[in-house]
Each structure stands twice: as structure tokens, then as C-alpha cells.
Amino acid sequence: MLNNKKLGGIKTMPFILANEICDRFASSGFHSNMITYLTQELNMPLVQASNTLTNFGGTASFTPLIGALIADSFAGRFWAITVGSIIYELGLVSITLSAVLPSLRPPPCPTQQNCQEASTFQLWILYISLLLTSLGTGGIRPCVVTFAADQFGSDKVITGRSKKWNFFNWYYFSIGLATLTALTVVVYVQENVGWGWGLGIPTIAMIVSIIAFVMGSPLYKKIEPGGSPLIRLAQVIVAAFKKRKETAPENPKLLYQNKELDAAISLHGRLVHTDQYKWLDKAAVVTESESVSSNPPNLWRLVTVHRVEELKTIIRMLPIWAAGILLVTSSSHLHSFVIQQARTMDRHLSKSFEIPPASLSIFGILTTLSGLVLYERLFVPLARRFTGQPSGVTCLQRMGIGFVINIVATIVSSFIEIKRKSVAAHHNLLDDPKAIVLISVFWLVPQFCLHGIAEVFMSVGHLEFLYDQSPESMRSTAAALYWTAISMGNYIGTLLVSLVHKYTGENSNWLPDRNLNRGKLEYYYWLVSGIQVLNLIYYIICAYLYTYKPIEEVKEEEEDGEFNGKKISEKGVELARNETA
To answer: What SS3 class is residue 219?
Structure first.
């Protein structure tokens, strides 16, 4: 535990955000145009390339759960970030070497017909590189945002607007700025200079991110890990099962409490008893054969109310968390398909300059960046007048708005694809996969902007929800749940695309390997729109039934060493914000 009040605070942000900005610049420059590298340089078919990226994207979103458990159990967030960054760097070095050395890629195929695909050895080099970056991501993603938020201390609200609430918005703003730079500079280099420099620049940026993060080490507030959260959750389940025949007391104050035992995992307040899932309360029932004087007791037979409530909190969060899975499923392959659409469209800004297809994402990033500023400066003050919430809307309401906007964006995408193919048919270009259809690539901009607005609401709200509502000793694990939802969504998305590709026939395949003009991409967009509508209905039901975590916050009075306790019930952090507004 930390007693040094001088550690942490705003002075650590330049180092942490410099690390995250360089890391996001590297990862965006590496991943954003990888579909082009696989299809144009390694000559992989479109569906195989898209599935490869989605599968490794799913792996990269699953490893954060492992990294978070390691960080929360024994390693701590600082070392998880440092080691993860080094492993990620090894992956970038490997993929850069494969782009530089001709023996590690197949011969060029400018016509994209009867191409020699990458050999097994060349594919293994690619897979090892992607696997290393996925493993490195496991240490970085779940820990950076929670490590940075830890620098501000308690999640108790200092002013009408939470410092952390502001932090989550500006955290996304910073990584959005880094992504924007990568999508303009790095993608341009990849398309016009070469893949050696195009992948080398992200590799150098990752080295800078590691140096920046380690340099700030003396200033960081490093919260000691509180032991494996999975073991604590398992102890509650086992203890409740062993006492399944016991009767829980009607007065929850008779359940087992131990402030000293819970001190390391409740620095900013203990969770208080709730009436949900009361069968778990049996884990905290003190029987006649048990002695509470032993410190600690056998935690596989008797646990504290705080530990029981940790499990209840996770159980309450899971339905909301699960709603993000199908959202990711619906959008997991959209980026790859849109890049292929853009490659067939008129991308000229002038007679001599063309926009690289992957750089179209800058419109989504610009919308997200401007949206974050407008959200805080315009939307929140306006919404506050109607809701009374210091943050304008709750994180659950914010996520719901994002779900709706995402559905609209997907429907718009389908109509734009219909328009693109109608122009191709008008000029008899449907059978030429390399032909440039006489329609401006800027027709794709509205869907990018809508997805950017959805990101402002959905992604930031989802991350804020997981951080605020999770037990404080499990926040890295909770952040990992965000990425685990992305992982599961990517895997299901791969299954969906594979099934669509397999069962829609050879003559009128929705997602053809080479000629998108003869596909039915708009049908795929309608399919995922329907999935998102069903998911929205599920989410609304879960959000309506959700109960915010109750917490008893404790703050230390430095003058006399006494402690003042304050119970915040039912609305948890949300009501805490109201009370201090």
C-alpha cells in the first residue's frame, strides 16, 4: 500500500500518455493497412486475409485477460506494461524483417490474377510476428488506462465532474490523435515508399514508447497487487457451496466482516451488502464451529461481505459486458471490406495525388476527436439540464446511444455499396476486379463519420462502466473484459463471414475472394444490421434491470488520524457524483 502522497498525479501523465500515444501510433500504423499487405504483398485471398487478421485480432483481445490476471495477482501494472511492450516490439521487428527480405514473401503479382501465394514458411513468419504482437498487447491494453487512472487516487469525485471521467475522454482523444497520425503518415509511406519503411516507422515508435514509460517510473503511484482475483471469486463460490444448507441471517450486519483482512483490496472503500444473489451470502455466515478470532480464517470456508460483494458485482456486470460481443461481431470485418471497396473507387484529390484506401479511416478518427471535445463542452452541459447528472448521461445511457448510431452506420454502408455497384454496372466494369469505378471514394465518408460518433458514445462509455463498476482490486481484469468482448466478437465474426462465404454459392457469393463487384456485400451489411437490432433490444433490457454497485467510501483525515465512513447505496459512483456536484 502507498503512503507517499507525492507520487502519482497529473505530473505522471506526460510519461504514461507518451507511452500510449507512441504505442497506439505503432499499432495503428501496423494494423490499419495490414489487409493490403496480406492481399497485395503476400497474395492471400480476401476472405482468408480478413479472417487471418480478425483471428489474430481476437487473440490480441483475449490475451489482455491473461495479462490483467497476472498484473492484479502478483506482477503489478507497471511491470505488465513494460514486459508486454518489449514482447510487442519483438513482433514488430519480425514483421519488418519479412517486409525487407525478399525471401520472406512471394513474387509480386500486379494483376492479382493467378498469383503465387505465400509459402508455408513465409506464412509462419507472419503468424509468429502477429502472435508476438498479440501476446505483448496482453500486458499493455488492460493496464495502461487503469494504471493512469490510479495516479489520481480514489474514484471518489473531487469536483462536479470526476477527474477520471475527464481522463477517459482525453485518453481516447490522445490515442485518436496518434491513430490519425499513423493513418496519414505511415499508410502513405506504406503505399508510396515501401513496406520496409512503412513497418519500420511503427517499430521505432514502439521503442520510443518503452523508453518514455520507463523514464517516468520514479514518479508513478504503484498500487501493490492484492492477490489473484480469480482465487478470491472461487473462494466465495466454494464457501457458499459448502454452506448451502446454512440459513443466512436476516440482518446482514451479522455476516462476517474483517476490515484488516480486506484492507489491501479496498483502499478506497469496502463494498456493502446487497440483497441480490442472496445465496452467495452463505459464504459469509459464521457457524458455531468457526472461530472468527483467527486472522485470517480459512477463506475456502468463510469470506467477508466485501469479497462476496466483489463476486456479486462481477455477476451484475456480465450481461452489460456481453452486449458488446455481438456489436464487435457485426463490425469485425467492416474495415477490411471498406478498404477493398475504396481500392475500386476514384481516390484522386488532385491529378497527381490519391488517398491511400486505409487512410479513409482518418475521417472516423477526426469525427471521434472532435466528437469527444463537443461531447464534453456541448452535449454534457445540455444533457445535465434535463437529467441532473453531472456527467450528462450515465455510462449505460451513453453506451445505448452508441449502439443506435452504430446500427444507422451499418445501414448507410449497405446503401453506399448499392450505389457503388450501380455505377460499376453502368460502365460495364462488374467483371474487372482491378477497374476503377467512376464514383468518388468520398461516398464512404458518411459511414466513417457515423462510426466515429458511435465510438464517442459506445467505447468510452463501455470502458468507463467497466472501470467504475468493477471492484477496485479487479480493475485491470475489468479492463481486460473490454478486450475479451472484442476477442469473442472477432472470433464469432470470423465464423459468420466464413459461413456466409461458404453457403452463399459460387456464382452469387456475397463475399467473393477476388472480384467485389460481383459480390453482395450489401446483403452482409443488412445481416449484421439485423444482428445489432436484436443485440440492442437485449442491451436495453439488461441496462433497465442493472443495479449500480454500493460502496462505503473511507477517507483518512490526516490531522487526527481518524476515519470517516460514508455509505453510498444503490447508485454507487453515480450518486456520489450527484452528491458532490
So the answer is: helix
